[in-house]
Amino acid sequence: MIGLNGVGLSLRLDAVSAVMFLLVSFIGWVVVRYTATYLDGEARQGAFTGWLCMTLASVLLLVLSGNLVQLVLAWVATSLFLHRLLLFYPDRVAAQRAAAKKRITARLGDAALIVAAVLLALAYGTADIAQILSSARAGNGGGLAITAAGFLAAAALLKSAQFPLHGWLTEVMETPTPVSALLHAGVINAGGFLLIRFADVMLLAPGVLAVMVMIGGFTALFGGLVMLTQPAVKTSLAWSTVAQMGFMILECGLGLFPLALLHIVAHSLYKAHSFLASGGAVDLIAANRRPGPVAIPKASAVGRAFLLALAIYGIVGFAFGFQDKSPQTVALGAILIFGVAYMLAQGLADAAPRALTRRTIVYAVATSVSYFALQVLAVWLTSGALPAAPAPGPLQWALIVLAVISFGLVAVVQAMFPLWAYHPAAAGLRVHLSNGFYANAVFDRLLRGWRLRSAS
Questions:
Q1: In whole angstroms, what is the distance from residue 204 CA to residue 369 CA?
Q2: Is 436 helix (H, G, I), strand (E, B) or coil?
Q3: Cβ-Cβ contacts under 8 Å for 66 (sequence gap 6 or more)
């Protein structure tokens, strides 16, 4: 601690901060090296690299924060430096629009976090995060802590591009590609980190967690469906990030904080790579003529795929000890296996070659084994640093069942969508989906009206 009265520069090193520090450092190192080649010859390459490094430094201070003041300052600094990166091409109208939306959501998120920090300091009489978490785990804090949990959730939702304020993330393609990759180095997922860091405080407010489940679950479903309709690779990846951030919030709402941390690591690594490799992927596809889908699964194949996926999940789950898992963990695995069933449906289609069928079955088994193995690893790694998932009450049970049913139905619709793709109703739905049901257009209109009033 360098400071006075618990305020200053202090570092908290535990499983959570160590994992996030390594993740941000590794992705940041890759992005900085990539930038050196990607922007070679740009007039403002030096300025871009400088703002990039300042953003990374702010994120590192954020994930290592040992007190509330440092946490808030690093949180705000991350947004301010990112804003400069979003406007690297200041003459692009789309970039200006995305930056304006991000500025609004960022300032709202900053305000929510400041209020939460003040409430936590009042509730526990200290700004030291370790003391706050220790007291919260003992059940202390009262109404002030519960209210603080609500503001922490609001800050996380605003930071993580949740519906309906997700539009800036889908328009960030106007910035250089390294920015899109940088977002996954603790920037877009800083909201998830905030919830994980204050997991003990969040568990004091079951009502707040329930709201997070509903918002995060809806955003995940919404983003996943819109993603399938996007023709551009980077835009599709951006919508995928919206969906993944929603799923991260859902995990936190269910109290599965170790799994949420695992999700942040896995998603950050593969999505940062996807953005950096997107240009090469486009070139590769353009250089090869593709015959189209191997096979379109019919309803019977989709049904067999879901039954097989659930059977594999059940067998693997019992091998790992289903009876020792929390209901939230089992439900999350079921949602994951629905995605596996979507993949299996392609392999079980009547026209699918046997090699594809065998490959998808192997992938299904590997996915199920990986889920439970990594879940055990995440819980072991964060034991003592993060609380276990609480026993669900009636409201939590209702939300768990609703989430499983919702994701299951969407997976079925996705698997069978090729059968309906050329139906007039499906074509119309596709248009609405590709525009995100115009939620972003509403944000644009509100922003334009606000600018006009400000100018007058």
A1: 33
A2: helix
A3: 1, 10, 11, 12, 128, 129, 130
